[in-house]
Amino acid sequence: MPLKSDRLAQYFKTFRKELFEIKHAAGYEHTCEFTMDDIQVNVNDDFLHSDIQSTYGYEKAKVNFNGTQELQDCAYLGGNHFLENN
Asked: How many domains are contained in the chain?
C-alpha cells in the first residue's frame, strides 16, 4: 500500500493535469484568466447551479496577464532568472 505522502503527491499531479485540461478547454492560456462567471457550483436541489460570485459573494481581483512569456521572464516566477544565476 502506498504511503499517504505518495497518494497526496499523485492527487496533486492528477489535479494539476485535469485543471490544465479544463483551462485549455475554456480557451485560456493561464488559470488566472478564469473569472467568477466561469465557475458554476451546485447549490441545492431547488437552485441547481449558480456562478461562484453570486453564490458566495466572492469577488476575484483581476490579475494582469500578458502571456506566459512574461511569466517566464519574471525575476520572481520565471526560469530565466534561475538559469542566469547558476
From this structure: 1
Helix (H, G, I), strand (E, B) or coil at 40: strand
Give the span between the Cα atoms of 68 and 15, in whole angstroms. 21
Contact status, residue 61 vs residue 67, Cβ threshold 8 Å: no
| pTM of the full structure | 0.60
**50 in a domain, yes or no?**
yes
Q: What is the pLDDT of residues 5-38, one digit of tens each?
A: 999 999 999 999 999 999 999 999 988 888 888 8
Please state, in angstroms and rounded to a whole number, the distance separating the CA atoms of residues 35 and 33.
Answer: 6
* 1 domain-assigned: no
Owning domain of residue 27 = 7-84
- Is 54 inside any structural domain? yes
Q: Are 55 and 48 in contact (CB under 8 A)?
A: no
Q: What are phi and psi of 39, to 5 degrees?
A: -105, 120
